[in-house]
Amino acid sequence: MPSPRSNATTLINLFQKYNLDVKDLVALSGSHFNGKVRCFSIMFRLYNQSGSGKPDSALDPGFRAELDKLCPLDVDQNKTGNLDATPVIFDNQYFKDLVGGKGFLNSDQTLFTFPQTQGLVRLYSIDQNEFFKAFVEGMLKLGDLQSDQLGEIRKNCRDVVNPSPAPHVLY
Ligand code: HEM
Question: Which residue among 7, 45, 80, 167 is least crowded, i.e. fewest CB within 10 A of its CB?
């Protein structure tokens, strides 16, 4: 799993190594339309972005106040929040959140602040069908990365079924 501190350039380079282009990166990051994140993954962003002792300036102030409340400095960092504002709906809210400065992870928000990925984020925020199409293409490419090894179906993504599962390429 790439670091949640990653910026878009790092992510573009990483994905390129697996023949996943900028469009795949942005569309696949849309997987964060659902799921949970631990406070652990955003503490640096809230309190010490890039060693500055300050929060990430790309954060919407209202959203930052919500996150500060969810994850105060003395929080149990296993506490979780939602990755987007509509966590159990497969939709393009994730991209709308990024445009509004309400991306949960630094690696999410950076897709909007970086010029190379900003246009795609904006496009998917206004055109859900474009997002769905690109997501399908990206998922097919992602699936092909493991073609020589058996995968496994898990009831809970964090619970490994096979004791020696196929190595995860990105996840
Ligand atoms: C682009 C680079 C990516 C980064 C830096 C990243 C990072 C993360 C992080 C840090 C978390 C939260 C982990 C935690 O706090 O426990 C997370 C959750 C998640 N990610 Fe990503 N991710 C990326 C791409 C992807 C991709 C490509 C997919 C799927 C195709 C994906 C699907 C998910 C899901 C479903 C969750 C929620 C897991 C849960 O609820 O337990 N992510 N990601």
Answer: 167
